[in-house]
Design a protein that fits this description.
Layout: E1 6-13, E2 18-22, E3 25-34, E4 37-40, E5 45-48, E6 52-59, H1 60-69, E7 75-88, E8 94-107, H2 125-129, H3 151-157
Parallel strand pairs: 6-8
Antiparallel strand pairs: 1-3, 1-7, 2-3, 3-6, 4-5, 7-8
Length: 158
């Protein structure tokens, strides 16, 4: 068990996704604004709180998928590790920023619809060796072979 703070936040993408190279990894970054709503007994109605802004960083394959899927104005749900940084700006003002290193990012389907497209997995050397397997055969098997784990079901059916 680690002592890292994990958060799940819901909000709206506040700008374009930017992609940069960090060493040998690609990272996609974007800002999410989350505005809390509370019921005010005094006003007898729901009121908006102050919008909180988070920078979200998505690394490697997640970053590739975020860059291809997320746009400014999209409602999103983000889960990841929270990092808080405080520093003094050039104007002498103390600034606090919140960054989330994303574990997962998705559209908030309570606010609209989304179409999912599965990312193709890279073909491994062993899968290429078995590329002559008939269509529909599990990767790593050829016609007539029973994949491991299916032997019991195949034997019972015979």
């Amino acid at each position: 068990m680690s002592n890292e703070t994990t958060v799940t936040l819901q909000g709206w993408v506040g700008g374009d996704v930017t992609v940069r190279q960090a060493g040998d990894a690609q990272v996609a970054s974007f800002r999410v604004g989350a505005t809390p709503r509370r019921f005010s007994r005094k006003a007898g109605d729901w009121v908006d709180g102050e919008t909180q802004w988070y920078t979200v960083n998505a690394w490697r394959a997640l970053g590739d998928n975020v860059a291809a899927s997320v746009r400014r104005g999209d409602p999103v749900v983000v889960h990841g590790r929270l990092n808080v940084s405080t520093w003094i700006s050039s104007a002498g003002v103390e600034v606090t920023s919140f960054e989330v290193e994303a574990t997962f990012v998705g559209h908030d389907l309570g606010r609209g619809r989304s179409a999912f497209t599965k990312t193709p997995r890279p073909v491994s050397a062993s899968a290429e060796a078995h590329s002559d397997a008939p269509e529909g055969s599990p990767v790593g098997t050829s016609a007539g072979e029973v994949p491991a784990g299916e032997a019991v079901a195949a034997t019972a059916a015979a």
